[in-house]
Amino acid sequence: LIFQVDPTYTGRVGASEAAPFLKKSGLSDIILGKIWDLADPEGKGYLDKQGFYVALRLVACAQNGHDVNLSSLNLTVPPPKFHDTSSPLLITPPSSETHWAVRVEEKAKFDGIFESLLPVNGLLSGDKVKPVLMNSKLPLDILGRV
C-alpha cells in the first residue's frame, strides 16, 4: 500500500499524496482530518512509515465503528478497506445494505445443516457443499464467488 502513495520510496508520504488515497476509505473529511492529526502529531505535513501505519490502523478502527483516538490502535479490527477497482490490492467496502450477521436463532439451523453433510476434521469439500448452495437459488456468478 505504501508504494501506491510513495512510489519512489522516499520513506515519506505527503499530505497531497495521502489525502486522495485516504479518501478512498469512504470516511468523512472530518474523520480523516482527525486521523491525519494523530498520525502526524508534530505537524510535519507528511507521514513516515510509522505514521502511515497509524493512519491505516485508525481508518480501520473508524470503519468498524470505533472512536478515532490513540487508544483505538490497540483494538483488533479487520484491515482497512479502500474503494479502488483499478487495484487488486484494494478492496471495495461492502455497502450497509450488504452487511449481515447470522442471528442466534439461525445458528443452530445452519450448524445442523453443516453437521448433516458429515464434515471431516471440521471441513466440508466443495462436492458436499455445492448441492446445498445450489438450493439457495442464487445466480451462478454469485455462487462462484462464494
From TrEMBL:
GO terms for biological process: endocytosis; endosomal transport. InterPro entries: EF-hand-dom_pair, EH_dom. GO terms for cellular component: clathrin coat of coated pit. GO terms for molecular function: cadherin binding. Pfam families: EH (PF12763). PROSITE patterns: EH. Residues 1-83, 106-146 form the EH domain. This is EP15R factor. It comes from Todus mexicanus (Puerto Rican tody).
